[in-house]
Amino acid sequence: MRWLRLWRLIRADLRFLWFALRHPSRPAWLWPVAAVLVLYAIEPANFAVPLIGALDDLLLVPLLLHLLLMLVPGEIRGDFLRRAARR
């Protein structure tokens, strides 16, 4: 049950990130930071040390993604929530 909640949170965060990256008033730092996070998630060290890489991908990457999205301006978050409410 916890994994399902975690997956829903990550999925919602990824949707919000995708929306924020395409938003016209996104901050200039968002694309580079998102790219670094993606590169960190697929780094080759994950394949060299599988157990540590799996823990890293399951714990640290979602946490960093969530923290990154907390820095996104409220205007973008409001637009995302309004759009999600219309669905």
What key attributes describe this structure?
flat, 5 helices, mainly alpha
Describe this structure as you would to a colleague.
By secondary structure, the chain is an all-alpha fold. It has one domain (2-86). It has helices spanning 2-22, 30-41, 45-48, 50-70, 74-86. Helix 1 (2-22) crosses helix 4 and helix 2 runs antiparallel to helix 4. The protein is flat and about 40 Å long.
Question: In terms of topology, how is this protein built?
Answer:
Elements: H1 2-22, H2 30-41, H3 45-48, H4 50-70, H5 74-86
Helix pairs in contact: 1-4, 2-4
**Which quaternary structure do these chains form?**
single chain
Low-confidence segments: none
Q: Could you tell me how far the N terminus lies from the C terminus, measured between alpha carbons in angstroms?
A: 25 Å
Integer count of domains: 1
* Beta-strand proportion: under 5%
Give the CA-based shape. flat
What would a concise description of this structure say?
The chain has helices at 2-22, 30-41, 45-48, 50-70, 74-86. With 87 residues, it is an all-alpha fold.
